[in-house]
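fwd from M.: "can u put these together and see what the complex looks like"

so here's what she sent:
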Amino acid sequence: DIQMTQSPSSLSASVGDRVTITCQANHDIRNYLNWYQHKPGEAPKLLIYDASVLEAGVPSRFTGSGSGTDFTFTISSLQPEDFATYFCQQYDNLPYTFGQGTKVNIK
Amino acid sequence: EMQLVESGGGLVQPGGSLRLSCAASGFTFRGFEMNWVRQAPGKGLEWLSYISANSDTIHYADSVKGRFTIFRDNAKKSLFLQMDSLRAEDTAVYYCARDARVPLDFWGQGTLVTVSS
């Protein structure tokens, strides 16, 4: 199975801050990576697919980059509605596997 | 509006069985591959199972192979997960999720399964 290592596990930030999360695969997954936002009691929401493609309707402050084994997710200017947990997921091979998640807290 | 609504969760004793359902609306269910994913308390997400649009291809995670069965009824726009021989470590929120342009592009809100005596 492909292991996804996501960091940090949590962070505290203020509205307007730039936030960066990384995800590393232990095997080349090309660009087959999703990033999601998950709020308690809600369905996880796909934000970025193919490592860098913004899902329709998702604000442009969310960006993704990387390929192979190293990936980065950035929120350019954190908004109040962005406080949530974010996680990466690879789909190069079954079983699909996920990063452990990053909880973004209000500073 | 697209929706996936899971149901069927609850409290079950170790060794027991439970059947989860996922009702789809707002899209052509029969045209999409589907999955089950779970998240145990305090843990990360775990993909469990995949089924193709016409049910001819099915995959399972090793952790549930031989105990869980995925199936679907396209006429009823529903996905199911039959869970047998349940263990305490199966306690989790269970999500159904659709494959479209990419795997797991749209998810339901989940249903909680608790395995405890």
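replying to her w this: Chain A is about 0% helix and 50% strand.
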